[in-house]
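Hello Y.,

Per our agreement to keep a running log of every chain we model this quarter, I'm adding this entry. I've kept the format consistent with earlier entries: sequence first, then predicted structure.
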Amino acid sequence: MAHPVRVGVGGWSFEPWDETFYPAGLSKAKQLSYMSGKMTALEVNATYYSSFKPDTFAKWAETAPDGFVFSLKAHRFSTVRKTKEDMKKSVDLFLGQGITALKDKLGPINWQFPGTRKFDADYFNTFLSVLPKEKDRLPLRHALEVRGSGFDVPEFYDLLTKHGATVVYAEDDAFPKLRHEGSSFAVARLMQSQSDEAAGYSAAEIGRFAKLVTNWSRNQDVFVFFISGAKERNPAAAMALQDKLGISPPDEVGAPVATKAKPLKLKAAAPKAAKKIEGTMLITPRVAAKKKK
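Predicted structure for the entry above:
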């Protein structure tokens, strides 16, 4: 049996989504509830910049339906430390803020490294060694997102396997596309959506992504996030991929389950006239592509 595939976007609060995704008049307080009913996962970028209280994580968990997961980006300061002691201190500080209040809705933790960090076996062995496999008896899944050079070597993949971690597959021409098969899970961040495509990507590209993650899911749990690019299109991209994979979102059946793929019919880029996608209005917003995160 194939492993679960979960699909989502980064965050749930983005002003253009008031026009391209959310129903008219939906309050911000209800946005997480609405989005978590349409997708099967979310990546939380806010944790990259700030810390939160346990009650906040518990509220997110309570709002989202069963089977939904939140992938958290670790704080940006946690991946720039140089000594083992400082690494452990930063890692423990992030993990100790209350993220386990998400309980079984806690997905992979993304440890994003700056592009200036090149592969160094000793450095990454040390960093991986301070990442605990569980917190408050809750299993943790760690994914390293690296943007520097020198990582596509056996030594790096061996370290990941040794420590039970994985590397983020980044679909962006500016970053290395790294694929690790030695982990129990895979994380993909797809960052090249286009504003002139109604679903962010062409039907052919959505089909390519579907084939990619279907192959991965034979041996791994898979988490796919549409990030950056033409961010206003990313919810449509996530729903298009779910449709192609035959994944029913939580607001239809409850927990996400991979089923037999259904044919996908994508319309051409949205003209000025509004087009409907799953009950929301999709129009061409007057916003530029956001900076990659």
